[in-house]
Design brief:
The complex is a heterodimer.
Chain A lengths: L2 H28 L14 H8 L7 E3 L5 H7 L3 H8 L33 H15 L5 E6 L6 H12 L4 E7 L2 E2 L2 E2 L9 H7 L4 E5 L3 H19 L2 E6 L17 H9 L2 H11 L4 H24 L18
Parallel strand pairs in A: 1-2, 2-3, 3-7, 6-7
Antiparallel strand pairs in A: 4-5
Helix pairs in contact in A: 1-2, 1-3, 1-10, 1-11, 2-3, 2-8, 4-11, 5-6
Chain B lengths: L2 E3 H15 L3 E5 L14 H5 L4 E3 L4 H13 L3 E5 L10 H8 L2 H4 L9 E3 L17 H5 L5 E3 L4 H13 L4 E3 L9 E3 L13 E4 L4 E5 L4 H13 L4 E5 L2 E3 L3 H11 L1 E9 L4 H12 L4 E7 L8 H7 L3 H12 L1
Parallel strand pairs in B: 2-3, 2-4, 4-5, 5-7, 6-7, 10-11, 10-13, 13-14
Antiparallel strand pairs in B: 1-8, 6-12, 9-11
Helix pairs in contact in B: 1-7, 3-4, 8-12, 9-10
The chains are: A alpha/beta, B alpha/beta.
């Protein structure tokens, strides 16, 4: 098999695992197994997969509230993530964080974040720390289009350019900030122009084209790792679900959603692979494997013990300690 | 043993620690030129621009970048210039720094020091003279220090830098010029241990930060009148030395807490409430600022703040 096809198959595998993880977790939520809402990234998997395929394990990643895909693509343990969504013992954060606060420091995943743009200052600081330590690791900072209207976006990009920090900013632009079309609340020409104005060169990419995201990221990461300073990748995509697992997203125009389904990044990548001669059964196997894996993790999580109530007092300074 | 100002004492402490550990660095506005109060004088020459980093006026990112840098293994000292500006970095402090260790199940220990020179600063008015340390004592996940002497400020800084948990240091900016002895080798201070300033049985007096020397002055004046009070400087509010206060109140039966901060829901309320729970029958009183922003004009400021005379009057009323 051609090297290119092997790489694309790896991307597809990551995307199928993210899709299956979130669809399975959504089913678990609908069945009342998962406490608390989920923020699914279904439809956006090409960004997570294409970007993270270019990161080393010791590269760091900051993510946002819609971060399951980022964590999985960075190599976080899916079993522990599912346990965390279920609030069970053995979860990524011991049941302290839940869906919105997945972190896996063992693979450089410095945490999802419940505050829009919350990861941006953390990412630039992590890069500054790595620079001080003499490391050649870089930091990837994922955020959505809603984040570009918050102060930390402007502060953080200025900061990264000023100190020439090894940061890849990724604006995963699904066009909607929670329930509001971002274009309706954003003045000016948008994220790339804002980045350029702050001295951070920006590249735009079709965020539903996994191969394009992969290629664009590869070039940016090479520049950043060589000491070229921060870069921004603007990846346009589409959120096929609502804001959270409790939002049926009936407020959206049906023709818009139908068009977006035609542009599903998984279907698109499969079609590329078919054109490269990969047989349909091989593609189906990736989906089936992912569904089987996540279904088993759901059953495992649903049967797992709850955290010991005493652990509610662990990992905190305490009342008067 | 150098006899130095409080600002210089903290400078010596940070200097000692930065020479010991190359992972320690400072970020904040104007720090490379020595800091607003000279507390980083000479650091640029010794440590270079990567360890003493003058930053843009970007409080959110000063705070958040300090956190990010801690998460990769460095030990940042985050300088907020003056306390009031932390309002621009509250998400990074309250939602991020204070939560990360717990929320991520112990995967990360954000070893940051956040320096926030606070308190009434003569004629600096409402946005440069706040005492909101009680907010942070209320917040799970941080250590809160309010030293009042050069020796304590230096020892606090050493402990804060060596702590694996986030430590908020409220430098008392009205006491920057106060002088005292600082040991050649500055040892860390144990968080949550009060300093016993005066011994007596008439009344327990509790204070901290810039109010502590005022309480000391009041205690001495009362002693001259034959009234011996037991005076404790808490030094840290989270954790705080509940045992030392309880042991004292158990003897005296009377508790007077004096702080610069607004009385209503100030940390004095917590001290009094804890003693009321532990030692029913305690006669208690709080002294602090009224619920008014700090005004500018000298007579207005003077009309509202705690003074030794007000502490003496309150103590005498309690003993009447």
């Amino acid at each position: 098999m051609a090297t290119n096809s092997a790489r694309l198959l790896a991307l597809l595998s990551t995307m199928q695992r993210i899709r299956a993880f979130e669809e399975t977790a959504m089913a678990g939520h609908a069945a009342g197994e998962v406490p608390g809402p989920l923020h699914p990234s279904i439809g956006q998997e090409a960004v997570a997969a294409g970007v993270c395929a270019n990161l080393r394990v010791d590269d760091r990643l900051t993510s946002n509230h819609r971060g399951h895909g980022h964590a999985l693509a960075k190599g976080a343990d899916a079993a522990r993530m599912m346990l965390e969504l279920y609030g069970r013992a053995g979860g990524s954060c011991g049941g302290k964080g839940g869906s919105m606060h997945i972190a896996d420091f063992s693979v450089g995943m410095l945490g999802a974040n419940g505050v829009v743009s919350g990861g941006i200052p953390i990412a630039v600081g992590a890069a500054q720390g790595l620079q001080l330590l003499g490391s050649d690791a870089i930091v990837c900072c994922m955020f959505g289009d809603g984040a570009i209207n918050r102060g930390p976006f402007l502060e953080g990009l200025n900061w990264a350019a000023l100190y020439r920090l090894p940061v890849l900013f990724v604006c995963e632009d699904n066009g909607v900030a929670a329930f509001t079309a971002t274009a309706s609340v954003t003045a000016g020409p948008g994220v790339a122009a804002r980045a350029e104005s702050l001295g951070v060169p920006a590249v735009a990419v079709d965020g539903n084209d996994a191969a394009a995201v992969d290629a664009a990221t590869a070039a940016l990461v090479a520049t950043i790792r060589a000491g070229g300073g921060p870069r921004l990748l603007h990846a346009r995509t589409y959120r096929l679900t609502g804001h959270t697992s409790t939002d049926a997203a009936t407020w959206r125009a049906t023709d818009e959603v139908a068009a977006a389904r035609e542009n599903d990044p998984i279907a698109r990548l499969e079609s590329v692979l078919r054109a490269e001669g990969v047989a349909q059964p091989a593609l189906d196997a990736l989906r089936d494997d992912a569904l089987r894996e996540m279904s088993a993790l759901r059953a495992h999580a649903n049967a797992a013990p709850w955290p010991d109530p005493a652990s509610a007092f662990a990992d905190v300074i305490g009342e008067n300690a | 043993m150098p006899h130095v100002t409080l600002a210089e004492a903290t400078r010596l402490a940070v200097l000692q620690e930065m020479r010991r550990d190359p992972r320690i660095w400072v970020l904040g506005e104007d720090v490379a030129r020595g800091g607003l109060f000279g507390q980083y004088r000479g650091f640029l020459e010794e440590f270079g621009p990567r360890r003493i980093v003058s930053t843009p006026i970007s409080e959110s990112t000063i705070m958040g970048a300090g956190l990010g840098a801690a998460l990769v293994g460095t030990r940042p000292i985050i300088e907020m210039r003056i306390f009031d500006f932390v309002m621009c970095a509250m998400d990074e402090l309250v939602n991020q720094i204070a939560k990360i260790r717990y929320m991520f199940g112990g995967q990360a220990r954000p070893a940051v020091v956040v320096r926030m020179p606070h308190g009434i600063w003569r004629n600096s008015a409402a946005q440069h003279s706040q005492m909101l340390e009680g907010w942070f004592a209320h917040l799970p996940g941080v250590i809160v220090c309010c030293p009042s002497t050069p020796a304590d400020a230096a020892a606090t800084m050493v402990s804060a830098i060596r702590s694996d948990d986030p430590v908020l240091v409220f430098d008392p900016k009205n006491l920057w010029g106060a002088t005292g002895d600082v040991p050649d080798e500055i040892a860390p201070l144990e968080f949550g241990r009060a300093r016993h300033l005066r011994h007596g049985d008439a009344l327990t007096m509790v204070s901290w930060s810039a109010c502590a020397p005022l309480a000391e002055e009041a205690a001495d004046a009362l002693a001259a009148q034959g009234i011996r009070v037991d005076l404790l400087d808490l030094r840290t509010l989270a954790p705080w030395d509940e045992e030392a206060v309880a042991a004292s109140v158990a003897r005296t039966g009377r508790l007077l807490v004096a702080h610069e901060a607004v009385v209503t829901a100030g940390f004095g309320a917590e001290v009094v409430a804890r003693m009321a729970e532990r030692l029913p029958g305690t006669r208690a009183r709080r002294l602090g600022f009224p619920k008014v922003p700090v005004p500018f004009a000298p007579p207005l400021e003077d009309a509202l703040k705690v003074t030794p005379a007000r502490i003496i009057a309150a103590a005498r009323e309690m003993l009447a």
